[in-house]
Amino acid sequence: MLTEEIFPTANLCVVGNINRDVRLAPLEAGDNLFQDGETTVEWTTETVGGGGANSACAAAALGARVGLLAKMGADSLGRRLEETLVRHGVHAHLTKSAACATGTSVNVSFTNGHRHFISSLPNNESLAFEDLPLAALEEYTHLFRADVWFSTPMLAGGNERLFQHARARGMRVSLDLNWDPHWGVSSPAEVHERKLAVRRLLPCVSLAHGNTRELREFAEADNLDASLRRLEEWGVEGIVVHLGSEGAGYYQNGRLVTVKPVAAARQVNTTGTGDVLSVCMMLLDHRKDISAPDKLLLANHIVAEFIEDKRKLIPMLS
Q: If you write DSSP's letter for every residue of 215-247 in order, what string do you get?
């Protein structure tokens, strides 16, 4: 049986967001939240945040050799984050800028399963290709671009330069097609241009990652099957699909393979499960001798243990 002992044979270089996450225990959604007053929750935590940093921490916790390329402010919060990453086993290749502050995101989750993020992320929004210490890529064989929507300089050509550099080195490239905060908010013309900027990256992408809603919105398709076919036509080699309560899937060469979820006895961690699933699949990507269902099954077991808080994949800030 495939076990987590395989993960230390893998390596991953992540480019993405780093910030502080303030997480709240799930609370009851209601009109009272829009009125003056105060709402008490069972607990709050302060953790490493950002899709890039969270993915790097999860991969390191599973035993892989991991690097994170990101930008932060030259401030006390940035120092706390860097110290936490290093202590957690992540090789931190961080650019520090006095021109921007290190950001914070407040993760509000509700008992009905919905969630909302309230964020100020100036360091991540200003990330540019010139901020990336590309020499660090020499140590890795798989590049993961997380949080692709957050930086305008990276959307405006930086991502293309990064992907071309990685592919020229023979690296596998993963891309998280997560939810763009501009979808449903900005003008249709602006949203279209942002989608085109990411679509241009797809011929360089070995693995794309996303849930059904994200993939459908990005591909502007009526259903998941049409979304997957369209992404493949645009150049993506394979797609890791987050199916939530239905499990997980892997699509390649016109065929979607799915594996049911592993039941979690209790729900402690309600966010970040997609990141954990994707990390597992990237760390298994180099093993062509292992079937997609076996990879998905191991990933689902680890996701369930993360949900139950049996696995401490995202570290608390010290």
A: HHHHHT-SSHHHHHHHHHHTT-SEEEEE-GGG-
User: Which residues, 6+ apart, have CB-to-CB distance to 168 below 8 Å?
Assistant: none
Would the pLDDT of 1 be above 80? no
Which residue carries 């459908």 as its tokens?
216
Question: Is it the case that residue 233 has pLDDT exceeding 90?
Answer: yes
Close Cβ partners of 206 (under 8 Å, ≥ 6 residues apart): 172, 173, 174, 237, 238, 285
pTM over 0.90: yes
Tokens found for residue 245: 């309560």
Q: What is the mean pLDDT of residues 305-310?
A: 94
Residue 158 is encoded by which pair of tokens?
Answer: 């930086």
Structure-token pair, residue 97? 């800028």
Domains of the chain: 4-307 (3.40.1190.20)
If we measure between CA atoms, which residue out of 186, 189, 145 comes closest to residue 167?
Answer: 145
Strand order in the sheet with 238-242: 91-97, 65-73, 11-15, 142-145, 172-176, 207-211, 238-242, 248-252, 255-259
* Residue matched to tokens 């003056």: 36
